[in-house]
């Protein structure tokens, strides 16, 4: 063999070797490597957990989804351990799930098989169906027995809190009950549910007894004359934080009405009572509440007595002839602010539109003018004056037409 042919064969052999080496490297890179320490997990209907160690020179990902077999991670690196949590099988069919671990183009399946569940009738009972506790509060407890997991409603409230809103058969739940300062018992019902079955438990907290010292007032009532005046009330002491609510009315005023704490002593309130110019007695009530106790402070003001000089008029009865004319009514003086109402007959006119005034008014003139009365009946016009406690009525009578 000549030298040229020998060199040519050696070059071809070298090129083939290089190509085979490259192809081998590509194949290894393309295929990749991933292994699991085990590839199958079988469990009973109760479920369970299994750990799987992943070996791969590359980072890996996990493909697949199941609501009943839940992985702790969906990606990782070489040597990581992933945990699968298998829920209880509530169906009557066996379950199977296959997850796929992927590293590069390499894949490795992991299979989970679970035996079928069995039919269990929904049932739930409580060790207690009614619990009671005193006004100081505290803790209560009951044990739940159920065919499967349970839940409870009505768990959101301000004074009785449950330790858990869901759980399993055999669980013990605890209620924490706040102290009650109410004057009535209070109740709360919790309903525990397992599927279609339910059972209720009612907690009753007894009322707190009222005592005279719950809140002490310097007095519980006072009287004031029609001229008005000032009254001072003191909240001397209280066993609880307290509130006050003042009655409505524009004639009785209080400076800075507010509540207080059980540590406050001799908290004073000043009431200012306006003069009473009405014919009626009147009252104003302030309500204090401390714990279970309610007390009231009542102010009673006398009625204003009537007097002949409350209102002075030029007359209270007037005649007007059938031919018509003008009648003058004079409001000479008043002791208090006044109001007047009148509804003249059709055709009559009144020259003064004033309907109210002050106690300083004098000699207010009202002129009524009437046309001829052609009717067979008399016409009447009334004026009603109200001044303080006194009401007076002026009557104007127009005679009927003459009958010939």
TrEMBL record:
<feature type="signal peptide">
    <location>
        <begin position="1"/>
        <end position="24"/>
    </location>
</feature>
<feature type="domain" description="BACON">
    <location>
        <begin position="151"/>
        <end position="206"/>
    </location>
</feature>
<dbReference type="Pfam" id="PF13004">
    <property type="entry name" value="BACON"/>
</dbReference>
<keyword id="KW-0732">Signal</keyword>
<dbReference type="InterPro" id="IPR013783">
    <property type="entry name" value="Ig-like_fold"/>
</dbReference>
<feature type="domain" description="BACON">
    <location>
        <begin position="248"/>
        <end position="302"/>
    </location>
</feature>
<protein>
    <recommendedName>
        <fullName>BACON domain-containing protein</fullName>
    </recommendedName>
</protein>
<dbReference type="InterPro" id="IPR024361">
    <property type="entry name" value="BACON"/>
</dbReference>
